[in-house]
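Worked example 2:
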Amino acid sequence: MIGLVNWRGMTTLLWKEVRRFLKVPLQTVLAPMMTTILFLAIFTLAFGGSGRYVGEVSYANFLAPGLIMMAVIQNAFANTSSSILISKIQGNIVDILMPPLSAAELTLAYVLSGLARGAAVALVVGLSMWILIDFTVHSWLAILYFVTGAGLMLSLLGMIAGIISEKFDHMAAVTNFIIMPLSFLSGTFYSIERLTGVWYQISHLNPFFFMIDGFRYGFIGTSDSNIWVGAGVIAALDILLYIGVWALIKSGYRLKA
């Protein structure tokens, strides 16, 4: 322990969680890559192939960043939620709670492991798509910021889901009725500029929209919203979610018998 932070304990837990998903790369990294490539192929062909454009950008180039971010969202959430829920069901969550790690250190270790999986999936999927389509990069800063912000947010949401869930049915409900709808209705497959009235307003209430819109801006240089507003929304939500997860772990809610 150095100072007031147990760096060794925190990094040990982080490495343990990273090794957990690296042990099964076919499931945790390569399977999302294959699913995302299939989405790209099917939607590109269904909507006119290379002849379809969204504004001045080909549909394939418009779609690809959204699909990469969707993979990040799903895998960062799955990493932390599954780890905590499985530990609770197997009864070995006590092995995580007993060491001299504070609630803040536990939260940070889990969150960074989810971010690591999300980033790994983004890298593999991005490289695969780069082989298939003509990728351009407008802003590396925007790409790194939004993939990091999204990975942190979904890792935190995954921790909340893992803590409040008592069985896999509860986790499936959160995934199918919250995470998936927000992912698909966030502008991944379309520009929300095509929406009108209340649906346009509702789209701006979806935090996943800001993740995808900002990430897409990093590649194509255009966005459906103000990038700075999206960056601020994501940063604010990450902070609020971190405080919420810290409070849950600190109280031992559904973690301690």
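The first strand starts at residue 53 and ends at 54. The mean pLDDT is 91.
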